[in-house]
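Example 9 (inverse folding). The structure is encoded as follows.
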C-alpha cells in the first residue's frame, strides 16, 4: 500500500513517524537556508515525499522516497530521488543524486529562457515559454521548484499531461535540455550572433551588435 504525501504533511500513524517527519521538515529548512548563509552556492527544493507501508509480523514497516531538485540559481540544475527507512536519509540520498546529475541551461539575460520548448516523459507533457521582464514564474508544483533552483525569474509553463511529480520533473528537464543559446547556433551555422539576434527580435543591426557584445 502506497500513500502520496506532500512535503508538509504530517504522518498520522504513530508518534515515532511524526517525530521522523518533523525531523525531515527541519532538515529541509536547514538545507534551504544553508545556501544563502554560505554564499548561495546551491538551492535545494524538496518536491515530493512518498511513504510506503508494508505489513509484517508485529506491525507495519514504513519506507520513504524523496524527490529533490538542486540548483545554483545561475543556470545549473539537477534532480534526484532516494529511498530509505527514515525521511532525512531519503532526502540526503536524493540530494546527493541531484548534485551528481546537474545540467547547465543557457539563460537569456540571466532571467528567462532563450526560446520556447516542450518535453514529455511517459504520460507527462509540459510546455515552457520565455517571458518579458516582470512576468515572474508562472508554473505550479514541481515545475516551479525546477525554475526557482535554476535561477529563472520570468517564464510561463504549462503541464498538460500527468500530474505525477516524477513525470513532470523529468519532462521539464527534457524541455530544458533542448535549450540552445544564439552563440551555439551561430557557431553551428557559421554565422554571427548579431545576425541571429536581429532576425529573432527584428532589431536594427547596430542594436543587435550591441546586444551580442
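The amino acid assigned to each position is listed next.
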Amino acid at each position: 500500500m502506497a500513500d502520496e504525501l506532500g512535503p508538509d504533511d504530517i504522518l498520522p500513524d504513530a508518534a515515532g513517524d511524526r517525530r521522523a517527519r518533523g525531523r525531515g521538515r527541519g532538515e529541509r529548512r536547514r538545507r534551504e537556508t544553508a545556501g544563502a548563509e554560505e554564499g548561495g552556492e546551491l538551492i535545494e527544493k524538496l518536491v515530493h515525499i512518498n511513504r510506503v507501508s508494508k505489513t509484517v509480523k508485529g506491525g507495519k514497516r514504513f519506507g520513504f522516497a524523496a524527490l529533490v531538485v538542486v540548483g545554483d540559481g545561475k543556470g545549473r540544475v539537477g534532480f534526484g530521488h532516494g529511498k530509505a527507512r527514515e525521511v532525512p536519509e531519503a532526502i540526503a540520498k536524493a540530494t546527493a543524486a541531484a548534485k551528481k546529475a546537474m545540467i547547465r541551461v543557457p539563460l537569456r539575460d540571466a532571467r528567462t529562457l532563450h526560446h520556447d520548448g516542450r518535453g514529455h516523459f511517459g504520460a507527462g507533457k509540459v510546455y515552457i515559454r520565455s517571458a518579458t521582464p516582470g512576468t515572474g514564474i508562472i508554473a505550479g508544483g514541481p515545475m516551479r521548484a525546477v525554475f526557482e533552483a535554476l535561477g529563472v525569474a520570468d517564464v510561463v509553463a504549462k503541464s498538460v499531461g500527468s500530474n505525477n511529480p516524477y513525470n513532470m520533473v523529468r519532462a521539464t528537464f527534457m524541455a530544458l535540455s533542448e535549450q540552445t543559446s544564439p552563440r551555439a547556433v551561430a557557431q553551428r551555422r557559421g554565422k554571427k550572433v548579431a545576425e541571429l539576434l536581429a532576425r529573432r527580435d527584428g532589431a536594427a543591426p547596430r542594436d543587435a551588435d550591441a546586444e551580442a557584445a
